[in-house]
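Q: Entry one of two.
A:
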Amino acid sequence: MSDDAGLQALREAARLSPDNLPLRQLLAQQLLDKGYLAEAEAEFRAALVLSPKNPDITAGLAEVFVRQGQHGPALAALEPLLATPGCPPRLGVLAARALLGEGDTAGASARYHDAVARDPSVADPDLAARLTPLVTPSIPQAPAPAAPAYAAPAPSPSSSSEEGVERAKITFADVAGMDTVKEALRMKLLLPLQQPELFSAFGKRAGGGVLLYGPPGAGKTHLARAAAGELGAAFVSVGLSDILDMYIGSSERNLRATFDMARRNRPCVLFFDEVDALAARRSDMRQAHTRQIVNQFLAELDGVDQDANEGVLVLAATNAPWYVDAAFRRPGRLDQPVFVPPPDLAARAAILRILCRDKPLAEMDFDAVARATEHFVGADLKGVLDRAVEAKLHESIKAGRPIPLTTHDLLNAARAVRPTAVREWMATARNYVMHANDSGAWDELMPWVKGKW
């Protein structure tokens, strides 16, 4: 659950006044807007009990289903509303998204164009780009507006323009907690592309770089993929094997080719995992050709001209930021280190909700499991769930039917799993923060290393 004070107040008010329909409806909508889909679904269902035929509540529940990928239930919820004369056009757009998710492109296109014809303000450019336009032979099609200089034709979500380029299917709604980190990414990377006129007024260009750092398993890679999905941009994940080569000069050429591929597919999120292996401190290197890789990396981040990397968003992740060459933190490069912390109690509960949302569940107390998994990161929590699922599968096989997971199952699994590397990572971080922080680069970690770790 979010620590947002307003949302907490709404939840408490709804708990004290469970029959207050406007209050429950407001809480459900707030949860939906903030991306807490499982909780929003529960609140919309509770509101429907109070007002079974309320079209706004039904539409809200349908939107939750669409965003969770449950397109069939979304269409079932929308069907009575769509059959009503004068159905609001926004519901037609919502139905189009659900139909597209079911693979009915023609039906989705018909619903979308009918809704937009009745109310142009509900137009969704991203959805329209994924639909087959309805072309009437007697009416010539208007030419498409010119795209920005850096924009490439948008491929369909299920395909990529070339090998190595993918389309992320998750967004920030699929990332539990980390609100501060997500806000930093929005301001640095996403909003300049989504609102270019506003940012250009202040001389800010679309593009740039962010260095994500933190303990292993905290969700850095998941967050980078969600950033691409949030933007609807291409996503290129770069591993060491994609760059490093035994022959002198080949690694530099591979690095150049990777950046060129990102520039051809912009807007693009270019993600370097374990970047300390490619961007290590040159003072620690004994061989000249390894220093040349770092030099090439820096040159590609700068670009051959000031517009070379416009629309290319570089995200780099590392567990050891202190080993990254200081030149990468210069403005215009990976100039904004962002700490991805271990999840707190509320974030752990939200992670568990996301991990469990496609599993058969009994009534769950995720807060209790979160309290029992202190110091666990996202990868550890997934391990807890995997262990619980394996045990439940044995029961289900014997019973001949799926047996829902319970809170007790997760608690049993949590007792058998130890958190992986957070304590060790914090111990290392403490050494750098306390004894090698003359520049103040690691001040952000001070509250953490002085805490209970």
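Q: Entry two of two.
A:
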Amino acid sequence: MDLPAGVVDAVRDDLVSSPGALTPHRVAEALRRAGRPVGDATVLAVHDALRRDILGAGPLEPLLRLPGVTDVLVNGADAVHLDRGAGLELTDVRFPDDEAVRRLAQRLAAAAGRRLDDATPYADLRLADGSRFHAVLAPVARPGTVISLRVPRARQFSVPELVAAGMLTAGGARLLAAVVAARLAFLVSGGTGSGKTTLLAALLATVPPGERLVVVEDASELRPDHPHVVGLEGRPPNIEGAGAIDVRTLVRQALRMRPDRLVVGEVRGAEVVDLLGALNTGHEGGCGTLHANSAADVPARVEALALAAGLGRDAAHSQLASGVDLVLHLVRDRDGVRRLREVAVPVRDERGLVRMETAVRFERGGGETTGPATETLERALAGLA
């Protein structure tokens, strides 16, 4: 039912002036005091609008519950998009104005104990249901307050399901099974939304059940279907600016927890130094994800993160070459299909710097081509590297 402009705001302002539960009876009384129509349809419509405004994700809640939704994106009051794996779709959901978007963003942030106002106009956190929430308030954001919600999967994909979905070829699945069995250390690289977390979770589910996985993340997303998983999650500062726990600190804690495999959900900062250090001190089978445009760009990405943490260029390349056995690079095609494009191996040149050499490249049509590092990868899988 379409409500006249200002009705919901008038009832809201009336109700907040006195405590009490949100009920249709209180809504009807507020409508009478405002001189508005008090028909059953109007009362229920206002009640439902206010209920959406104070519970869950408000008008976004139905979108979050749609099957297959991975992201819900709000670009101001008039543009709400979702992603179901085939690219962004514009929805019919609209907000009355930017103030309504702002209220929703602030309420969700407050529920997680975070401040979101003009003094701190952005927030990045995880909601109680596991959704990843990010918001930037207007006027810092245009065309209005922007909200991004990443929806956790109800269940994780298995490797056979990734083959059926086209992310892996049958040969690629066999290769990755051998990588996990050989306890090789690897990084999963790719752009945003390319499926790094999905692939890593599926591979971790194939780890033998007798092994202990310690997973470190800035925001918990990795939920591998494995009987022995311990998760450590970073924590942002509270409203007073205290209590933050960064990923680097958690990596150090994880090393003291007897991990058979140390997993860093996303390497994005100084924790790269601790991860590389761990992989060079006997922690086999470690892994993590990393944003990169291609497998060839991984050494430069690792170098930049390590330099920011105070590790010199030569040391960063040396640690990368000796600690990481291979890189799995993912892409997202224009049709929205995520797939494994390349398996590459780090090789040091005459200057001691690392470059990535292709071992196997997977073509879009399902074909596979070998590269100069194929024999190196085969030796690593056989335990001869």
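A: Comment on entry two: The mean pLDDT is 87. The longest helix spans residues 40-54.
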